[in-house]
Design a protein that fits this description.
The protein is mostly helical and 113 residues long.
């Protein structure tokens, strides 16, 4: 029971940290360090409770913010990529497409225009 509670605390604290730091912390080890646990323990715990590894949660936080910016602003894709923490707009575009099955511009056209 105590182990279960600890796992839930780790997962919830990790999710909170992703919301605060997804723009600057892209590596699971950064989150593990903030929680004073190993990256593999963090990943095992998060994956067992959510079904997804830590890296997916970090990416999804970035993509969610990118979707919000695509919908509510007129910023271009390059500006949005930088704003959500990606130094390589091309990589960001590929990641966005992998996660959403749409390019950033297709997303904007489909849901906003």
């Amino acid at each position: 029971k105590e182990k279960e509670n600890r796992s839930i605390i780790i997962k919830e604290t990790f999710i909170k940290l992703t919301k605060e730091h997804f723009k600057t912390w892209k590596q699971p080890a950064q989150y593990a360090s903030a929680l004073s646990i190993s990256p593999s323990h963090l990943n095992d715990t998060v994956k067992s409770l959510t079904g997804s590894p830590v890296s997916i949660h970090i990416q999804e936080a970035s993509i969610m913010e990118a979707k919000r910016l695509l919908y509510f602003t007129d910023k271009n894709v390059k500006e949005i990529a930088y704003e959500v923490g990606y130094d390589e707009p091309v990589y960001f575009g590929k990641l966005f497409k992998k996660v959403t099955n749409l390019t950033p511009l297709e997303f904007r056209k489909k849901f906003r225009d």
